[in-house]
Design a protein that fits this description.
The complex is a heterodimer of chains A (about 180) and B (about 550).
Chain A: H1 17-25, H2 35-38, H3 48-62, H4 77-85, H5 89-105, H6 115-127, H7 133-150
Chain B: E1 8-11, H1 15-26, E2 31-34, H2 42-45, E3 68-70, E4 86-87, E5 91-92, E6 100-106, H3 133-137, H4 147-161, E7 164-165, E8 180-181, H5 187-199, E9 204-205, H6 243-249, E10 253-256, E11 260-266, E12 272-278, E13 284-288, E14 292-294, H7 297-306, E15 324-331, E16 346-348, E17 364-368, H8 378-385, H9 390-400, E18 404-411, E19 420-428, E20 434-439, H10 444-463, E21 468-474, E22 478-481, E23 511-513, H11 529-542
Classes of the chains: A mainly alpha (about 180), B alpha/beta (about 550).
Chain lengths: ~180, ~550
């Protein structure tokens, strides 16, 4: 039996039992257990409203509405992730670092930027090294947003797989 | 339900323990079957009918994963970049420069039914050609049991499980056909069959412990593709719905979940007298038994013995063998409903013999692998296979879901002096006992075999017309094993093995080991459960 890889990790991934237990408790996964993020300065109190607005725009840039399916925010994705992040200092720091970076790239307000500018910012963010907070933010949050969006049936319209595997199974697949 | 005193106590309710307990009840014995993990209810616990079915591959319960640690693994060679794991959407999945255990690393289920609860259900017999690795190639050890001895037991188990398989026996001669004709191949596997035909390699139905028709009170498979999530219908032949159900029905088997083996207590004449177990509330109980069977797998069985300070001798924990695997996933460019069908429904045994790869000792098999790769639902596609974002990403998703195909290769794992199980010097479980620590080394021969496996997987996809690879992963840069073996080797010489050919521990007249830790060699990618069960039945038949 061949198991797929989990989200990207590095050789700092926790190998000890205690660190593996801790990583499992972190909603955003093993990918956060990286030393450079732990070393990120906690900084002053973040502007919660701005962070929420930027993060919501980030989610909707990743997953906008189209003719068939709603946007990430219409399905409550950013709100749920922001809720999960609360109380997890490492994830909170990553969130703030990522949103600060996005705002900085877009003249101070990612959410207000035109779509093409937001897309360019994501291109640059995706190209950032994995070790950097913006690079780590992009990969971890993209994975989280996609999981929280595509778990919802309203996102399945237009896909060949538009229901859970049971109870009907997929007889068509063997015909 | 049976109550003590017992004729035997079996610790571990996976493939081996379940078969062992059932066979004992057939002999009329009263058996206690214990497992440290919980019991699962197929209808309630697996969640394949839920909208969030994809968020967890197998819905573990508290206590259903044992804790292990990993010793630091080797530095990765920059020259072997072609064996690094990657995906189109995420890039390299191990970004470091050392091999690591990613995710759980050792993928298993602790509980009633053990890892058969999340297994695919491949019902493989060992290739007889892979059972004499020492005498033929000077590596690993020879099996002290022959295929000829196992054949009738294989057949008996196939009949009990309701295995569906092909008419062609290949290297594994059969005294009778499979109980059921093979399942129909999925559209995706038929597409791969075109590639296999172009390459002139075999591509046949894989023997599967999943029912094509109703049998023994269980319904037929409905091709949901979710075997690794746990089968809610009970058509997959996991140990809980087959051996354990029958053992329970006999009235002679008491089954206790969430009971952890703490100590093995010796008595006169080198015999085992009793065990101490703790229940979920950590109440400790002493259970006397005239026969003790350990069936905890190739990580926990050696740990249980190492905790006994010397029980089983110096070979315990050595010769640890792991899964050697490679998977390539590609876009077939046409809708194939590849999320459906029976996982691993087709297989190529062409390079399974240990001398099948020029210059390499130990073979491998290829099989359809999209389900085992967990590349079936929208989440996996979005996270791993379909890069980007925005409306274009949504359009690509609509083309991709159901159109990806995968080829997996699983190969021989050979012993290495650095691959072993020992006790972690620092970390302990809830009872304060050291955890098992896994040491694993990928050596040069392993790398050569992995290279051949990756080339074969890519070649089959290419020949099938799937040109764009979207993800590849293998065991060069990560430890990722569901099948582990060898750490309590079976053999005739107590100096180089732990148990004899009847799985009885050398020097201990009433202690047996019935799991894959006894395998002298791993085989060239065969799934082990059928062989574990055949060895277990044989052991019980020889017990006095």
């Amino acid at each position: 039996m061949k198991f797929p890889p989990p989200a990207p990790t590095d050789d700092d991934a926790p190998q000890s039992a205690e660190r593996r237990r801790a990583a499992r408790r972190i909603a955003l996964g093993v990918a956060l257990a990286c030393t450079d993020l732990q070393a990120l300065a906690a900084g002053g109190p973040a502007d919660g409203e701005r962070i929420a607005r930027t993060f919501t725009a980030f989610c909707d840039t990743l997953v906008p509405a189209d003719a068939l399916t709603p946007s990430a925010s219409a399905l409550g994705v950013p709100k749920a992730i922001l809720g999960d992040v609360q109380g997890n200092p490492l994830a909170e720091r990553l969130l703030v670092a990522g949103c600060d970076w996005l705002d900085g790239e877009c003249g101070g307000d990612f959410a207000a930027a035109p779509e093409s500018v937001r897309h360019s910012a994501l291109e640059r963010m995706q190209a950032m090294p994995w070790e950097s907070p913006p690079g780590r933010f992009f990969l971890v949050m993209r994975n989280t947003v996609m999981a929280d969006y595509y778990v919802q049936p309203l996102s399945w319209r237009g896909l060949a797989l538009d229901r859970p595997p049971q109870p009907l199974g997929f007889f068509d697949a063997v015909r | 339900m049976a109550e003590g005193p017992y004729d035997a106590v079996v610790v571990g309710a996976g493939a081996g323990g379940a078969a062992t307990a059932w066979r004992m009840t057939e002999r009329g014995w009263k058996v206690l079957l214990l497992d440290a993990g919980p019991a699962f209810d197929p209808e309630r616990d697996y969640g394949l009918d839920r909208n969030d079915w994809e968020k967890q591959r197998f819905r573990h319960k508290p206590g259903s994963e044992g804790e292990v640690t990993f010793a630091p693994m080797q530095a990765l060679d920059p020259q072997l970049a072609d064996l690094r794991s990657w995906s189109l959407a995420q890039g390299r999945t191990n970004r470091g420069d050392r091999r690591v255990a990613t995710g759980a690393g050792y993928h298993h289920v602790r509980g009633i039914g053990g890892s058969t609860l999340h297994f695919v259900g491949e019902a493989h017999r060992m290739n007889p050609a892979a059972m004499k690795m020492k005498s033929r190639f000077g590596v690993a050890a020879d099996w002290p049991v022959s295929y000829t001895e196992l054949e009738p037991l294989y057949l008996e188990i196939e009949r009990l499980l309701g295995v569906a398989g092909p008419a062609e026996a290949g290297d594994r001669w059969r005294s009778a056909p499979y109980p059921f004709a093979a399942h129909p191949l999925s559209r995706a596997s038929r597409r791969l069959a075109r590639g296999a035909a172009a390459l002139k390699i075999g591509w046949q139905p894989n023997p599967r412990a999943a029912l094509p028709v109703a049998f023994d009170g269980r319904p037929p498979c409905n091709y949901c593709g979710g075997c690794t999530h746990g089968c809610p219908r009970r058509d997959k032949g996991s140990a809980d719905v087959t051996f354990i159900a029958k053992a329970r029905a006999s009235g002679r088997c008491e089954i206790r979940a969430e009971h952890t083996l703490l100590r093995i207590l010796g008595g006169a004449g080198g015999r085992i007298e009793a065990i101490e177990v703790a229940d979920a509330a950590k109440r400790v109980q002493r259970i006397a038994t005239p026969r003790l069977v350990l069936a905890c797998g190739a990580v926990e069985t050696p740990r249980a013995l190492l905790l006994q300070r010397g029980l089983g001798g110096p070979q315990v924990g050595r010769n640890f063998l792991e899964s050697v695997a490679w998977t390539s996933i590609a876009d077939a460019g046409e809708p194939l409903l590849s999320f459906g069908g029976l996982p691993a429904d087709a297989i190529s045994w062409d390079r399974n013999r240990p001398d099948a790869i020029p210059g390499v000792i130990g073979g491998f098999r290829l099989s359809a692998a999209i389900h085992e790769a967990d590349m079936t639902g929208a989440i996996a596609h979005a996270q791993r296979a379909v890069p980007g974002w925005g409306r274009a990403h949504k359009e690509k998703m609509r083309r991709a879901v159901g159109s990806l195909i995968a080829v997996g290769a699983v190969g021989e794992s050979l012993p290495h002096e650095g691959s072993m199980i020992d006790l972690d010097p620092k970390e302990t479980d809830e009872f304060g006992r050291p955890l098992a620590r896994i040491h694993s080394v990928v050596d040069a021969m392993n790398v050569k075999r992995l290279r051949a496996m990756a080339a074969a997987a890519r070649g089959l996809l290419r020949a099938s017309g799937a040109v764009t690879l979207v993800e590849e992963y293998g065991t060069y840069d990560s430890f990722s094993s569901a099948h582990v073996f060898g750490s309590c080797r079976m053999g005739v010489d107590p100096r180089s093995s732990v148990v004899d050919a009847s799985l009885r521990m050398h020097g201990v007249p009433n202690l047996w080991i019935c799991d894959a830790s006894v395998f002298p060699s791993s085989g060239g990618g065969e799934a082990p459960s059928l062989t574990i069960q055949a060895l277990s039945l044989r052991a019980v038949d020889r017990m006095t």
